[in-house]
Amino acid sequence: MIRKSFALAATALLACTLPEVAHARTQMRAVGSSTVYPFAKAVAERVARANPRLGTPIIESTGTGAGIKLFCAGVGERFPDVVNASRRMKASEAKLCAGNGVSKVTEVQVGLDGVVVAAARNNPLSNLSQRDIYLAIAKTPFGKPNRAKTWKDVNGRLPAIPIRVMGPPTTSGTRDALGELLMTPACEANPQLAAMKKTDEARFKAICTGVRSDGAYIDAGENDNLIVQKLAQNPNSVGIFGYSFMEENLGKVKGIAINGVQPSYQSISSFKYPGARPLYVYVKNAHAAAIPMVRAFVAEFTKESSFGSRGYLLSLGMVAAPNPVRARAQQAARTLAPLILAALK
């Protein structure tokens, strides 16, 4: 009887946020990152088995940017309760949230991942610098049109195979991380570009993170498994996606070292790998009060047992964050303390 009364109260709470909706949902809905998707799906299935009365969460792979846009669109049963993200929320997105009444949001860092440059196992590329990657895929490297056709054009020590890079779209957090972690460091090493960052940030970003549109960089969509399949079919191509997908497909693809560092659990957890990045889950607190599964979902995502020697998230390729970060994540999952949106960059 208590469970039934709570469920009715939860439905009523969400329904009140949207007067035109007669019956609100009680099933949790999460959108967002394709990188976080397999982890979120596994967490959702685990929680649903343990709490069958709460229903199985709906997990959608929309890309981080598109997911946050949906999440921040409003409060009520039409809008997602949770967004999974392969990068931190931006200040502009926080402003969108606040403008639509999504004023209380909890940030939970659920683990680490790496932006991996991978290829078929017989691909001749074995090591690239951040500069190599920038010169190969930037639309206007250092402000000039990109005329490089082969990797040898980028660096005389690299093989003369065509530059063909399959990577994430603009809606993806992995695309943002590619620009921030693997392209920008090489770009801003140029003194003129470093100065431009202070005087014209928009132009700096366009030069440092804009990718080619002449066929050398191919927008491969949000399905990272599809990129893996295409690499096997095109041995001279290169793909960019999350470490977990590489880990799952080591029989088909290999990771290419960046600055001499191979992508691995150890190099990502220590942040020695240049593409290492945190993964996040954002909770809409107004919905957490109405849908019990939300709290259960984030609690499961931060459990120590999920990351132990036999932890199922580790087996899927997620890298555990350092102990202090995990402790903060567990506290955030328990208390749902709101993020200070104004503090985001």
The CATH class of the largest domain, by name, is: Alpha Beta
C-alpha end-to-end distance: 46 Å
Q: Give the structural class.
A: alpha/beta
Shape annotation? globular
The overall average pLDDT, rounded, is: 89
CATH architecture of the largest domain: 3-Layer(aba) Sandwich
* Number of distinct helices: 16
The helix content, as a percent range, equals 40-55%
- The SSE order reads HEHEHEHEEHHEHHHEHEHEEHEHHHH
- How many domain units? 2
What report would you give on this structure?
It is built from 16 helices and eleven strands. The chain is an alpha/beta fold. It has two domains: 2-113 and 277-343, 3-Layer(aba) Sandwich (D-Maltodextrin-Binding Protein, domain 2), CATH 3.40.190.10; 114-276, Periplasmic binding protein-like II (D-Maltodextrin-Binding Protein, domain 2, 3-Layer(aba) Sandwich), CATH 3.40.190.10. Helix 5 (130-137) packs across helix 7 (173-187), helix 7 (173-187) crosses helix 9 and helix 8 (191-199) crosses helix 9 (201-209).
